[in-house]
Amino acid sequence: MAREIATLAGGCFWCIETVFNRLQGVEAAVSGYMGGHTEKPTYEAVCNGDTGHAEVVQITFDPDVIGYRDLLDVFFTIHDPTQLNRQGNDVGTQYRSAIFWHTPAQKVQAEAAIAVLDASKRYGSPIVTEVAEATAFYPAETYHQRYYETNPRQPYCQYVVAPKVAKAEEKFAGRLK
Length: 177
Fold this sequence. Notes:
- The protein is of the alpha+beta class.
- It contains 6 helices and 8 strands, in the order βαβαβαβββαββαα.
- It has a 6-stranded mixed β-sheet with strand order 7-6-1-3-2-8, covered by helices on one side. A two-stranded antiparallel sheet has the order 4-5.
- The longest helix is centred in the middle third of the chain and has 17 residues, at 104-120.
- The two termini are 19 Å apart.
């Protein structure tokens, strides 16, 4: 069975990781950092905006169960791709909307998905999602992995992560594990 990798940035990685880990065909969704200029960045350095990295989730998936375009549909549902360098109260380039492509086919699909969304005027504003070639992926510190599952009562999880998870579970109920 062939596996593929997708790397997406849509604000805080806790939200994105939680949703993707619940989808059929996703073997793993790992929080981390990509797109910066520092080797082995730390969470603190990324949060300070010193490294140029985005908070990302690297997704290992089975394309026979869930396609790359399906992952992009979920991605564009659970974050606002019209906010430049922010998601809600999380502000800075580390929270940018980005698709880091691993193959030329992923690049084409990402650009096509953005063109369709822009043409639909679904968001009322232009999509600002960056489409860039994948670079080195640095997994986030262990305490960030599956953060929502281990900290569901943490205020950020209750007020930011939980509503995004609920929205995704409702819209993509047929795709949940």
